[in-house]
Every structure is written in C-alpha cells, then in structure tokens.
Specification:
By secondary structure, the protein is α+β, with helices and mostly antiparallel strands. Helix content is 41%, strand content 32%.
C-alpha cells in the first residue's frame, strides 16, 4: 500500500513537470514567432547600409564606381508678382559637349553620376514658394540613363527672391552621400504686374503734380494773351492818331 502511494506521488510530480515543460515550450515558440518579423526588418535595413567594419572600403568602392555626367537646369532672372513658372533640371549619364576652350554655358554643368541621384531646390525669401512635382531621388546608373525633376515656382509678391539647386549621388537607398555639387544659386527679381490702373495708383502723386502745373499755366497763358492784345491795340491806335509827315 505504501509502495502504491509512492508511485502515485512520483507520477503526479512527473505529470506536473511535463505540463510546465509544455507551457515553457509554448511560450518560447510564441516569443520566437513575435521576434522573427522584427529580426527580418532589422536584417533588411542593415543589408542596405555599410557595416562599421568595412564602412570605409564600401564607400571608397562606391565612389570609384561613379563617373562624370552632365545636367541642364532652368535659369530665371525675372518673374511677375502673382505669376507661376516651372523650374526643371535634367541629369544625364553622358557628358555634355563643350565648345573648345570654353566654360560650360550658364544653365548647365557636370556632376558625378552612376548612382541613385537626388535633386533639391531650396527657395529663400517671402516672395517665392517652390513645390516639387517629382520624386526627390531617381537612378542614373549608366551613360544611357537620364532623369528629370520639376518644380512649380510661385511668386505672390514683388521683391527679391533666390533659388539654389543641389545634386547629390547617394549610396544605394541610404542617406550616405557619395558626391554632391555646390549649390547653384540664382537671384530672381519679382516685378509688379503691369496694369493701367495700377500704374495710375503707383504714380498718382506725379499725375497730381502735372495737373497742378497745367492748372496754374492756363491762367498765366490767358493773362499773357490779354496783355499781347492790349499792346497790339495800343500800337494800332497810336499809328492812327499820329500826324501825317
């Protein structure tokens, strides 16, 4: 009888241990299932970035893969208040043709390409706003590739404003900069929109002065005309009453 009770006690202990083991395994499986997506995201992100150990060699190698391309961009010197215009830049993998012995013409230049290219237009001043109509980054990987960016520029008020264009070559789809052009700045003179009534409104003081001068000149002219007539009549009367010689 005592032996049977001991066997029952040992069986209960073993069953309890099996239950605890099963619970532990279930919890471990659940935790692993929850961590797998997180680990996948971390590994995916880490694959696109240079590891610390070979960061230098990775960036140096990526820079060696760049080559000289060309770009053309809009030039805007003047704009009208209340107007809208477009600003475009085109980046090509091929080099631009340059005239012999001359600098590249205004509105064009060369840039390092062969990577994911970014174009950024910075607008400064309260008289201008710039809205991008294209993706900030586009690939220019071979000499046959080209990409174009466009912005809408609005000039609501008259005054001076400026825009600055910057082209950047990135390492894959990261923030690592391989090469970048110096900002290409342009100063824009935003002029008032011409209108007849606007011209009168801006020049009312000038018009008022002209009218005042004319108003004062009319009596003076009339006065001089009356004096001329009286002088002429006096000369005629004197001739009629003069004694005959």
């Amino acid at each position: 009888m005592t032996w049977h009770r001991e066997r029952l006690g040992q069986g209960g202990i073993a069953m309890g241990m099996r239950k605890r083991t099963a619970v532990t395994v279930t919890v471990a499986v659940g935790v692993a299932a929850a961590l797998i997506p997180l680990l996948y995201v971390v590994m995916a992100n880490s694959d696109t970035r240079p590891r610390k150990g070979n960061y230098r060699s990775t960036i140096v190698s990526a820079r060696k893969g760049l080559f000289e391309g060309s770009f053309r961009y809009s030039t805007i010197e003047r704009a009208t208040a209340g107007g809208i215009t477009s600003f475009r830049v085109t980046v090509e993998g091929a080099r631009a043709h340059r005239p012999s012995g001359g600098e590249p013409s205004r509105g064009s230049g060369s840039a390092q390409v062969g990577a994911l290219m970014g174009a950024r237009l910075s607008c400064a001043g309260s008289h201008i706003t710039c809205t991008a109509n294209s993706s900030e980054r586009q690939p220019v990987l071979t000499p046959q590739d080209s990409a174009e960016w466009e912005w809408t520029i609005a000039t609501p008020e008259a005054g001076k404003a400026s825009v600055a264009l910057t082209l950047t070559a990135y390492y894959e789809d990261t923030k690592e900069v391989l090469a970048e052009t110096s900002p290409l700045a342009q100063v824009i003179e935003v002029e008032k929109e011409w209108s007849f009534w606007g011209m009168i409104g801006d020049s009312w003081q000038w018009f008022a002065g002209v009218l005042a001068v004319l108003a004062g000149a009319v009596p003076l002219v009339e006065h001089l005309e009356r004096r001329r007539r009286r002088a002429a009549e006096g000369e005629e009367g004197a001739e009629r009453h003069a004694p005959a010689g």
